[in-house]
Amino acid sequence: MRAIARVTTLPLRVMVRENAGYAMEDGELPLLRRAAAEFAAAGVDGIVIGFARAGEPALDDVASVLASAPGVRATFHRAFDVLRDPLLAIDALTGLAQVDRILTDGGGGSPAQRSERLRAYVARAAERITVIAGSAVNDEALAEFARNGCVREVHVGRAAREGDDPEGPVSVARVRRLRALADGIGL
After folding, report:
1. Is the Cβ–Cβ distance between 130 and 100 less than 8 Å?
2. Exposure b/e, 82-99, CB count within 10 A at least 16 = b
3. Would you call 108 exposed, middle or buried from its count of C-beta atoms within 10 A (0-12, 13-18, 19+)?
4. Exposure string (b/e) for 12-35, b if CB count within 10 Å is 16 or more?
5. Cβ neighbours of residue 71 closer than 8 Å, sequence gap 6 or more
């Protein structure tokens, strides 16, 4: 993170999690709180965090971690996609002042289906929180989202990497192509 911060002025948001799931496991809270505090001290723009329990956002867990990094903004990550009622979850998440973004795949399906759900999420969020489209944001999905105007921010992973390898290096050429696509359609 520090090496990246030295070479870019882009805002950095760092994922804070101890396991690949969306639930906090026993003993993880102190580790997550320490990580959040360390990232805040290092000057990150924000952290990316999210927990769910029985189809509901685990707001107490999120708030507990965020308390270790007061003033740092947060993105509620794709734990959002396992919630029972995304629209009510948006209302609940706006109650956490540090959470200013939600990262979601838009509920799966075709880019057009995702786009319609993303439009509903953005309408519900209004000016309170920004919805970011993420997961499987390839050229087709990016073009649909921009054409539909459902979101103003997207998160690309594999689409920006060589060979679509999630662990592969980011390709400058692919990032330029995605940027040109987004610029050409208004993102």
Report:
1. yes
2. bbeebeebbeebbebebb
3. exposed
4. bbbebbeeeebebeeebeeebbeb
5. 40, 98
pLDDT tens per residue, range 26-66: 999 999 999 999 999 998 999 999 999 999 999 999 999 99
Whole-angstrom Cα distance, residue 159 to residue 138? 5
> What are the helix (H) ranges across 17-110?
28-42, 59-66, 86-93
H or E stretch covering 145: helix 139-148
> Which residue do the tokens 């001290």 mark?
41
Q: Both tokens of residue 35?
A: 């990580």
How far apart CA 15 and CA 81 sit, in angstroms, is 16
Q: Write down the pTM of the prediction.
A: 0.90
Domain ranges of the chain: 1-104, 106-187
On whether the CB atoms of residues 80 and 74 are closer than 8 A, the answer is no
Is the domain covering 1-104 a CATH 3.20.20.380 domain? yes
Query: Which residues lie below 8 Å from residue 171, measured CB to CB, with a gap of 6+?
Result: 160, 161, 162
The model's pLDDT over 65-106, given as tens digits with 9 standing for 90+, comes to 999 999 999 999 999 999 999 999 999 999 999 999 999 999
Q: Which residues pair with 71 in a beta bridge?
A: none
Q: What share of the chain is helix, strand, coil (3-state, %, to 5)?
A: 45, 15, 35
